[in-house]
Amino acid sequence: MQLCLEPDQLNLIQRILNAHFAGLEVDAYGPRVTGVDLTPESALNIVVVTSQPVSFEEMVSVENAFAESGLPFRVDIIDWSKLTEGMQKDIKKEHIVIQEAVADAS
């Protein structure tokens, strides 16, 4: 599988993620991973993989950073710890890691 993004878009996304979620794994899933029903306007779906819930303030902060980034599509970000087991399994089937976890991160 290949992530359907331009290299400069991925670089910007990774910089924003590192600024907000340094050390945590972040995965992409959905149309920009599978290519199914993909359009230029398709949102990038990402999930922060952590066992501890991400604070509301941090989620708002990263959502604002993406909204102000100038990307030509929406970035939808969710918290792994708040997903049902079924949703987690669905994401694990077809995902791409766009930021690796660091061993000592939560």
Give structural notes.
InterPro entries: NT_sf. The protein is of the alpha+beta class. It has one domain (7-99): Beta Polymerase, domain 2 (2-Layer Sandwich), CATH 3.30.460. 38% of the residues lie in helices and 20% in strands. The protein contains four helices and four strands; from the N terminus they run H-E-H-E-H-E-H-E. It has helices at residues 7-21, 31-34, 56-67, 85-93; strands at residues 25-29, 44-49, 75-79, 95-99. The protein has a four-stranded mixed beta sheet. Strand 2 (44-49), helix 3 and strand 3 form a beta-alpha-beta unit. Helix 1 runs antiparallel to helix 3.
Please describe the structure with a list of short key phrases separated by commas or semicolons.
106 residues; single chain; 4 strands; alpha+beta; four-stranded mixed beta sheet; Beta Polymerase, domain 2; 20% strand
